[in-house]
Structure prediction request, 639 residues.
Amino acid sequence: MTSLAAASEAGTSASRRTRFPILVPILVVLILLGVAWYISAAQLDSVTARMLEPSNVLRRAGEHAWIVFASTVLGVLFALPMGILLSRRWAKYLRTPLLAIGSAAQALPSIGIIVLLALLVGTGTNTAIVAILLFSLLPLLRNTLVAIVSCPPSVTKAAAGMGMSGTQILMRVELPLGVPVILAGWRTMLVLNVGTAALATLIGAGGLGSLIDSGMQLGRMDVVIIGSLLTASFALLIDWGASLLQRALTPRT
Amino acid sequence: MTTMITLDDISKKYPGSARPAVQNLNLEVEKGETLVLLGPSGCGKTTTLEMINRLVTPTSGNIFINGRNTSTLKTTELRREIGYVIQDAGLFPHRTVAQNIATVPQLLKWQSERIEERVDELLEMVHLAPDEYRNRMPSELSGGQRQRVGVARALAADPDVILMDEPFGALDPITRGHLQSEFLRLQDEIHKTIVFVTHDIDEALRMGDRIAVFGPDSTIEQLDTPMRLITAPASPYVENFVGGDTTMRVLGLMEVRADEQSPSSAEIETVESGTPTNEIRIAGSEVRDILVTDDRGRPQRWVLADALDDLSGTVSDLPGSVPVEIEAGSSMREAAGALLSMPGENPRAVIVDEDGRVIGALTLADVQRAIAESGVPPSEQVGERV
Prediction:
């Protein structure tokens, strides 16, 4: 009995700690090394060289990171409380219509939202951030709601029966138990943001997408490819980091 | 006896349902008793229970605990003073056994050392070794162990009142039986006031000091002791719910005792092993079967009266048979089962105390007499079904 228990414990902790994902960072490092090698070694014409100048690439990457960061932080600040509010019993009848609106919004092409919003409020980084955030809210909102309302009723009943207040049940039981589902929604949001951020260049907000865009316009295929590779590496790296965070925060059950 | 919980004309009607879930219910629970709410599903027994800790708010009527009207108290504070155990335990899956048990003490902001001490004490109480189980997660426990933790969690802040909603309902019959007897033993020490909901008549008879049988129309059909419920059902509904098998159920409620309940006890003659046979013949004028015991009074062998003709040696030399032992306090139902499975025309078992010493004897005639005196209607005794 005890040896069995010990074995199963060892089993879970082993599956927890091994299989640390190293494939993605290795891949990203290889891509970056390849790009760096190409920029330094290849015979570039002056236009290409200017576009691929390290300071320019880094500036674009910085813009990209800022757009992703700002839209994600604002998205979490909005979607998480909203999901919690919708999970309350009094909001029961708001859930279906709001989720329907959210799904419909997500079905719109992101490029449409970005351009429309730019037409309405003007171009610039802030518009891009808001547009991107509108597009990626739904996964986190929906997962937060689902995580809370799908908490086993026997558990919430026991919690209430022992004298926890509504807030205590939320903070000590429903949210901790919902962490895996909420984090999955957050990760989806993040990946959507990284992808859509490549479109920010269309309304003058820069980002790695502008490498692709200007490469296309000036007919420099190598710039387009490098821009795409960098955007993809960025997305992979962010998703990898998010998966690590998800692992670390998921409670042991 | 003082009253611990009073339900005063309680009704509950859910919006949108035609019939009230509970209607004009009056009930008093005495301090230290276990009151079972028994009935089919949908009869309002769980609603009644949940109105006591205000998980359900009564539509009308008042509930008093220890003389205080519960509607005047803050619900969270009220609930922290009441232990609560539900089916499949409802443990928090993301918290360890110790953290689960510590829930209410933490809400009451106890010092952490006091909580740790209390957790270990409670784990001992429900027979889980603290060192082994303290840091386990609920998913690493069996169903029975989870329910033990559930009971420990309900007892954590030492509440006067404990509400139990089908606490053993999800367990297999063997585990359920174990937990029931353990809980009875625990209750003997802690004397809590317990309201216990079940739909299982045998569980009700076993656990309850009194049983309230709920009818289909959400009223109490009968509120009585287990014995009265079986022997004097107040209505055909109760009779039907309690079901047949009356005699065996009555026996299940009676304990084996070595007093006037089993007159054979007076007739038993014990002799310590090694006693010369001729001394026995002089001591007893009438020759009876004798029970040979060791020097501590524990039974060894029956020696039949016929064999006592041989006066040459000691009782230990005579032929005999191994006695069947029944511990005092076990149920008459078990004892009757043991007697019926023994060979011979007039089977008899030895009643021993907890140290295994002889204190009496039990025969089938004693069992029959006990049934007759319990007040079971005679027609039931032969098992006739009308």
Remarks:
- DSSP finds eleven helices and no strands in chain A.
- Residues 79 and 130 of chain A are 13 Å apart (CA to CA).
- The mean pLDDT of chain A is 85.
